[in-house]
Design goal:
This protein has 661 residues and is an alpha+beta fold. It folds into six domains: 100 residues, Rossmann fold (3-Layer(aba) Sandwich), CATH 3.40.50; 70 residues, Dna Ligase, domain 1 (2-Layer Sandwich), CATH 3.30.1490; 128 residues, D-amino Acid Aminotransferase, Chain A, domain 1 (2-Layer Sandwich), CATH 3.30.470.20; 121 residues, ATP-grasp fold, B domain (D-amino Acid Aminotransferase, Chain A, domain 1); 124 residues, Glycoprotein, Type 4 Pilin; 67 residues, RNA polymerase II/Efflux pump adaptor protein, barrel-sandwich hybrid domain (OB fold (Dihydrolipoamide Acetyltransferase, E2P), Beta Barrel), CATH 2.40.50. The protein is 28% helix and 32% strand. The protein is built from 17 helices and 39 strands. The strands form nine sheets. An eight-stranded antiparallel sheet has the order 14-13-10-11-12-15-22-20. Strand 28 and strand 29 form a beta hairpin. Helix 4 packs antiparallel against helix 5, helix 7 packs across helix 8 and helix 12 runs antiparallel to helix 13. The longest helix has 26 residues.
Length: 661
């Protein structure tokens, strides 16, 4: 066994790997860039080493700096985490040459299976169906157009190496092929240091299901069951679960055997994932193999009881697997939600900035939080927007989902945009609950962009009760303070008016022990809690049923989130409510003559000049944020009056890029 292991990654996965190392009594070495000097994983690891500048190419993708860090600290092995150099055969070879153990497969295995083209050819030779495509790299956009036309639209342009949804673009016509070639090449080069792309047929309405495999150095290879990863946006997974609600036993057995056969074809060692596309008739096609730990590995750990990081270490140390295929009997159900720094209300654009408030749900035997963020920390434009993963387990799917919804209601983030409401809305979607979805689910359910379903009447009533409870707690604190001032006292009346969803609701509130009875519209809600003023999460019971609300106080009002819905609530004294209703509504400023940046990021290019006439759909500029390229296009005809920025500028959200006449 090893005494010291360097973790060549950052954020939540670095902290998660450290947790296993600490349990095994192995010292951990973290690495960090200029942008991560104050990152949580730096303080968590036993020691940490600076490896370069903020851009990944100068630090986390710089193999030589990481090898030097191993030599400096005496680390005997490297765990690559995921992303960055985790599937880079040259890095694995560098370590091999230096006598440092790479916690993963050999460089030769990574070369074969980490290259999507080579892996598909091997799968075909093994007798596993593959997605139709052109199995060679594409050198230019014109060649990509010819191949796409031969395959038939729609097609996918995909990076030859890497993963995580980067370097993948869907094209439905020739113009989109040209744009996708450029974007996929740039993203792949930026994220993985390899800009090669190829073209593959897009399978309409598939499921994305993957099998976790594990092999030792003695020829023993097993699979640990499947993960359903179909719920995606921008080709990046959001919700993962194990087992799949779709597969029948016959297909599950056949896919598991195919995964083991493919891994056995190269005598695979360590953990890896065989990914498949599955159509509605249970026909499955090999998609790719990830020769590394997956972001979604915790759901497999929950249902199998195995620590995959521990087994990566044990296999690399030469130990035998202690379990056979028949010993793997997954129990219960596990589901994971990825919390991202992004704005689901505006096309999932990345969000950067400081985490002004950050509170995670309480962990328990069936609730797990993997995160690398902290209150006051910075989400930068340089790296992936993943903030945290919330993973739950229970005896069945419905119960695991219920646990996850409760946990998400306890998650509180302020300072940046995030997708918590979106995740809650997905988990409440009837089609999702029935298991009836495919990779086009999000586009189909939200064709005009994400807008949460309105809060139902019962939950709206609970929110009114919660708002009154918190408002009166603020007044109780003010009353206690006022007693110290001579001849001054804050009175707490019973009559109030709650403004929510354009309604003004008269309520009565009566103090009752550790809470209030809130009465309105012929109902009374007994709201009870030990909540204190300023806490961002209200854990309470309403009529003896547990409820969770996250809350932001805005002036004298509150923004309250509950089960994916977010509403602004004001609690007024009766006379104040009458006066407020007389005020005219405030009109927003007219910004129709400006193109503003929908995200913070690097302006890569500007495709127009001042005085140019543009038509709807015309490319205006490209912004890069968190390794993703985003094209901004004209929404209407117009003439460019003034361009306010230049390529290379770092934009802030809402910054004006150009003006129209």
């Amino acid at each position: 066994m090893f005494d010291k292991i360097l973790i060549a990654s950052r954020g939540e996965i670095a902290i998660r790997i450290h947790r296993t190392l600490k349990r095994l009594g192995i010292k951990s070495v973290g690495v960090f860039s200029d942008a991560d000097m104050d990152a949580r994983h730096v303080a968590t690891c036993d020691e940490s080493v600076w490896i370069g500048g903020a851009p990944a190419a100068e630090s986390y993708l710089a193999g030589k700096q990481i090898v030097d860090a191993c030599k400096k600290t005496g680390a005997e092995a490297v765990h690559p985490g995921y992303g960055f150099l985790s599937e880079n055969p040259e890095f694995a070879r560098q370590l091999e040459d230096e006598g440092i153990t790479f916690l993963g497969p050999t460089s030769e295995m990574i070369s074969t299976m980490g290259d999507k083209i080579a892996a598909a050819k091997l799968a075909e030779a093994t007798g596993i169906p593959v997605v139709p495509g052109h199995r060679d790299t594409i050198s230019n956009p014109s060649e990509a157009v010819i191949i796409a036309c031969d395959l038939g639209f729609p097609v996918m342009l995909k990076a030859v190496v890497g993963g995580g949804g980067k370097g993948i673009h869907l094209a439905r016509n020739e113009d989109e092929v040209r744009d996708s070639f450029r974007l996929a090449t740039d993203e792949a080069h930026s994220a993985f240091g390899d800009g090669r792309v190829f073209v593959e047929k897009f399978i309409e309405e598939p499921r994305h299901i993957e099998f976790q495999v594990l092999g030792d150095q003695h020829g023993n290879i097993i699979h640990l069951g499947e993960r359903e990863c179909t719920i995606q946006r921008r080709h990046q997974k959001i919700i993962e679960e194990s087992p799949s609600p779709f597969l029948d036993q016959e297909t599950r057995r056949a896919m598991g055997e195919a995964a083991v056969a493919l891994a056995s074809a190269i005598n695979y060692t360590s953990v890896g994932t065989i990914e498949f596309m599955v159509d509605q008739h249970y026909n499955y096609y090999f998609l790719e193999m990830n020769t590394r730990l997956q972001v979604e590995h915790p759901v497999t750990e929950f249902v199998t009881g195995l620590d995959l990081v521990e087994w990566m270490i044990r296999v690399a140390a030469g130990e035998h697997l202690t379990m056979r295929q028949e010993d793997i009997r997954p129990r219960g159900w596990s589901i994971e939600a990825r919390v991202y720094a992004e704005d689901p209300y505006h096309g999932f654009m990345p969000s950067t900035g400081r985490l002004v408030r950050y509170r995670t749900p309480q962990e328990s035997f069936n609730v797990r939080i993997d995160d690398g963020a902290y209150e006051g920390g910075e989400i930068t434009r340089y790296y992936d927007p993943l903030i945290a993963k919330v993973i739950t387990w229970d005896t069945d799917r419905d119960s695991a989902i219920r646990q996850l919804r409760i946990a998400l209601d306890e998650f509180y983030i302020q300072g940046i945009h995030h997708n918590l409401n979106f995740l809650s809305a997905l988990l409440a979607n009837p089609r999702f609950l029935e298991g009836q979805f495919n990779t086009g689910f999000i586009n189909a359910e939200y064709p005009q962009g994400f807008r949460p379903a309105p809060m139902n009447e019962r939950d709206c009533g609970a929110t009114v009760g919660a708002a009154v409870f918190m408002h009166l707690r603020y007044l109780q604190r003010a009353s206690q303070t006022s007693d110290r001032i001579p001849d001054y006292h804050v009175l707490i009346p019973q009559d109030w008016v709650v403004a929510v969803n354009d309604q003004f609701i008269p309520v009565k509130a009566q103090v009752m022990g550790d809470g209030f009875d809130v009465s309105f519209a012929d109902q009374t809600l007994a709201v009870r809690s030990d909540w204190q003023v300023g806490q961002p999460v209200l854990r309470c019971t309403i009529n003896a049923r547990p409820k969770r609300f996250t809350v932001i106080r805005k002036g004298l009002g509150y923004t309250i989130k509950h089960l994916g819905a977010e509403v602004d609530v004001q609690v007024y004294a009766t006379l104040a409510a009458e006066m407020i209703r007389m005020l005219p509504p405030k009109q927003p400023p007219d910004m129709s003559m400006y193109l503003v940046s929908p995200m913070p990021g690097l302006l890569r290019s500007v495709a127009v000049i001042e005085g140019e006439e543009v038509a709807p759909g015309k490319e205006l500029c490209v912004i890069e944020a968190m390794k993703m390229q985003n094209i901004l296009r004209a929404e209407r005809s117009g003439k460019i009056a003034k361009i306010r920025v230049r390529p290379g500028d770092v934009l802030t959200i809402g910054q004006i890029i150009l003006e129209f006449e």
